[in-house]
Amino acid sequence: MAYYFLFPEIDSTIYSHPERKLLNAGGDEILEIVKEKHTDQKYYPTRILVKFKNEEIKNVIQDTIGSSTFNNGTSEVSLKLYETEQKNLINLINLDVFAVSQSWQEGKGRYSNLPTSSNGVSWIYRDNETNQTQWPTGSVTGLTFGSASIRIDEFPSSSAHKLIIGDKSYIPVLSASSFFSGSDSTEIYVETSASNAEYGSTYSKSPIANFNKSLVTAINTYSTDVSASMIGTGWPSVGILILSGSVTGSKGNVKVYTSSIAGNNPNTQYGHQPLFGNTHGSDSDVTDKFSLQGGTDGTAVTFYPGTTGSLDEDLLTAGGGTWWTGSNYSSTQQFLNADSFDTDFSVLQIVQRWSSSLFASQTYNQGNLPSGIENHGFIIKQPESVELNASHSFGELQYFSVNTHTIYPPKLCFKWDDSTHEYTSQAKTSGELNVSLYKNQEEYNQNDIAKFRVHVRDKYPTRTFATSSNYLNVGYFTANSFYSVRDAHSEEEIIPFDDTFTKMSADEEGMYFNIYMKGLQPERYYRLLFKHKNDDGTIIYDNDYIFKVIR
Asked: Kind of pairing, strands 168-172 and 226-231?
């Protein structure tokens, strides 16, 4: 049997507290699940993000465990966080973990930084306050995306107006009389690289098309993620342009640029308004933004099918991460009057979904398995009913982060069966035994896979006449024999006695087991213990079997 540990690539706490919703804590040594009290007398929750490297996950599955063993139903993967402090906890605590559905940046901020650092993930942003890539905050029904409705109050008078959808600009070229009609006049420029586009009486960029149809036809031809339709096209009531998302998971803004018409438009009957929208013009350029998924908020981003996150509640500010839903993408742990709040989430199914993406390039397939998802890490949070209870704190839980200077960073623990025992007929089923560790190098490099051998013999052997010492005879534990690893200084149990995953193996030389030093903290001493079950009961052997891991 074997254990293999991975340590996180990045982690952070994110805070919904109104004064800390832009706070990045990626550099902190502590991760915390807490509900902070604000001056409004309400309690605001936090969440924890943890991510492990794709390449390390792929290597341990493919090269160390073996893909067939990993997926044969006998392996296990657990997410471990180690408690550093807890305060004022209620008797029953539940924590949930989900697979994060979008990428995020750790940052190097700290809770105590003044001014507050926002150079990484926060409750609002996946990256930082500069790029401002928001966590999705809305939902859609099924696979259907909403529409953006844009009121058009007048025809364009020149090429001083343009509509940008994605990376393409739609610009009137000649007279505006047929801009929204289906005439065959050459009316629309369609150009890529919208961010570099210029508008004015002379349009200098080279278009990808001179389109001799209406704006609606041009959009439907060149915008792959958007479809267009028009309600009403008669002057002076031009009508409403309807833009709808047409690709599952597509999202983005429609941008409208127009030159100033305030004070220059003689047609005051209909107000001095820009080409699109209901915002009054000014003497400078006017930009209106419309969401392709709702039409009311230019910055709104919706959840991808199969995912969810924080909606805009009375208590919670929208944000706080997004995650995959369903039993294959989540795990729960309950603590009842607990002495320890170290986590041990079972996350095998989540890692198997990552594996499907890493090895077979599978993607999310709603309702069907196998289904792969990209690895963006885990999010750990309290149940929604607790987070939305604004009147109680429920206590505080703090865990060591990957930045800790202790031996307790978070771990992704892989466990599988690599044991073999074909010498049960020769096993010591009763009697006192002498147990010793041999071929122990005492020091091992952190990249080693160490094979430890255990010599087993009778403490009081039966007298026989022989030409060699009975000390050289090979002896065996029963198949119910196990090993454990502890930190020699702190007595922290690194690998516990596990009746499923720490069984010892046997071959012609005796009992043995393997330890992967990669998952142990370097420059520390560790102690081995053995447990043997036979007809006499259960015996623990703890005789200062010490080894050290070095860099």
From this structure: unpaired
